[in-house]
Design goal:
heterodimer, A: 111 residues, mainly beta, six-stranded mixed sheet, 11 strands, 0% helix, 55% strand, globular, B: 110 residues, seven-stranded mixed sheet, four-stranded antiparallel sheet
Chain lengths: 111, 110
């Protein structure tokens, strides 16, 4: 049972466009929602994270929007660049340091 | 350099031949875990360890074993590998909420 559902599975955008990846969760006990970025041949690395007491967090071109009532959160990449091409995973913290991950989104930014 | 290392990076083996994938971290983290990554399924946790001699099952533990005798090492053991364990495996260690991943081990079981 996937506790964190992620969509779309793949996404193609043009350089300069906005990339949007969505995640939905069911467990209201989740208390920390990170996004990880993974380049081919590498392990995932933390990109940005949010707690449920805020609705938005922005770091550079990357923004997380969080809707607690809908149990949804999304990653927005503004001015997408070819270097942003990677696989993105949303996740949710269950307890201690345990994370439950979404299925992943393969983003391709065309030049 | 702070890092998580895994060995081997690539491994092809046959059904039933015991193997161990090593994982080591130099950040003095207490929490370590193993994940497998499969297309369309994301990262699924196999086992995790809160500290030395403390391990627990994750979401997909069947067919795997782990041990945590030292803080820095957390090996993953497949005592009788099967083709459905063909996957990309990641070890991770954690400081507070952030998990630091190793480079991955691509395992093929024939």
């Amino acid at each position: 049972q996937q506790q964190v559902k992620q969509s779309p599975q793949s996404l193609i955008v043009q350089k300069g466009g906005i990339s949007i990846i969505n995640c939905a969760y069911e467990n209201t006990a989740f208390d920390y929602f990170p996004w990880y970025q993974q380049f081919p041949g590498k392990g995932p690395a933390l990109l940005i994270a949010i707690r449920p007491d805020v609705s938005e967090k922005k770091e550079g071109r990357f923004t997380i929007s969080f809707n607690k009532s809908a149990k949804q959160f999304s990653l927005h990449i503004m001015d997408s660049q070819p270097g942003d091409s990677a696989t993105y995973f949303c996740a949710a913290r269950t307890s201690g340091s345990r994370l439950t991950f979404g299925e992943g989104t393969q983003l391709t930014v065309n030049p | 350099e702070a890092q998580v290392t895994q060995n081997p990076r690539y491994l092809i083996t046959v059904t039933g031949k015991k193997l161990t994938v090593t994982c080591s971290q130099n950040m003095n983290h207490e929490y370590m875990s193993w994940y497998r990554q499969d297309p369309g399924l994301g990262l699924r946790q196999i086992y995790y360890s809160m500290n030395v001699e403390v391990t627990d099952k994750g979401d997909v533990p069947e067919g795997y074993k782990v041990s945590r005798k030292e803080k820095r090492n957390f090996p993953l053991i497949l005592e009788s590998p099967s083709p459905n364990q063909t996957s990309l495996y990641f070890c991770a260690s954690s400081f507070r909420y952030e998990q630091f991943f190793g480079p991955g081990t691509r395992l093929t079981v024939l």
